[in-house]
Amino acid sequence: MTENTAAEPVTADFWFDPLCPWAWMTSRWMLEVEKVRPVRVRWHVMSLAVLNEPKMDELPEEYREGLRNAWGPVRVCVAAEQEHGGEVLGSLYTALGVRFHHRKLPQNRETIADALTSVGLPAELADVADSDRYDVRLRASHKEGIDLVGQDVGTPVIAVPGADGRRIAFFGPVVTPAPKGEAAARLWDGTLMVAGTPGFYEIKRTRDVGPQFDDSED
């Protein structure tokens, strides 16, 4: 395995919505990338609810209901960031993701409060789920990420400095299960290669399996 030995690792900015299982898979891959490439992830919040606001009337009712419920977790993440610093986002995202995606717990106040206390944050932050107190900051964080890639993508968005110093940003990659070790490194290298190619926009194929979670994270 190639070890991460660089003194000054590259910062990979990662925008997530904790409800998205595919963003969760990508985030677990990025934690592997940190081990094998000189990369450090800096976490940011984006919102599927905000992203889909312009087309809510066109969406199936079941999906619209899910988006209405999506406001709570991102609001709490932004509140935690604002009140306790951006460094808490990574651990809070992991705590929420394990509960939402692995344990299949309800995406409600009780689950969010449990995730908060598990990483040393006050359970009272869960009250923000039903408040618009931090929505200006939430929308600003979302806009920062989505402006890098355009409106017709989802979560996650990743941005890194390119070889010429200009920022490279992309949606995805969408992958399951999350690659580990040298496989994670190869995917990272390849993703940067295609994303950094001028005029490159898309590679895609139909998904024939759902997210495959690592039970060791439960």
TrEMBL record:
Pfam families membership: Rv2466c-like
Source domain of life: Bacteria
InterPro entries named among the record's database cross-references: Rv2466c-like, Thioredoxin-like_sf
Protein's name in the database: Disulfide bond formation protein DsbA
Lineage of the species this protein comes from: Bacteria, Bacillati, Actinomycetota, Actinomycetes, Kitasatosporales
